[in-house]
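Ticket #4471: structure export looks truncated?
Reporter: QA, pipeline team
Priority: medium

Steps to reproduce: submit the single chain below to the structure queue and open the exported record.
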Amino acid sequence: MNQKTKVEEVLFADWVTGVSPERREAGARALDTLFRAATGFQPVIWTGGIVGYGAYDNTYASGRSGTWMATGYAPRKARLSIYIMPGYTDCSVILDRLGQHNKGKSCLYLTRLDRVDADVLGELIQAGLRDLATHWPVRAIP
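Actual output as written to the record:
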């Protein structure tokens, strides 16, 4: 299989210093602390500037298979993208308490971290991992 999103051979400490603008680097560091606490996993850099925590292996009905991050984020120039796999199925009660955000199917978009409740974001990350674990085993990436 030719999976586009793959693990990069770079350490988070080296990668994060290249994040720009400066406010996004600070956000990436703050999110790293939050994700480590919420997941218990160490950060792994994936292609496309995505920081992932944990992983899962899955096979689609088509037979296509791959390894994907269990949860993570990407500090983009305009906003922070938070990835909750496989989505926000039953998270409306948590999202109602989060603060200012927009959402896609498996992405949560934040323009500023100081506009959301970090404890609630941690709760959302944990809820996403619990939901994911009902579909596929979640594991650390060695």
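Status: closed, not a bug. The export was complete when the record was re-opened. Leaving a note from the reviewer for reference: The longest strand covers residues 65-75.
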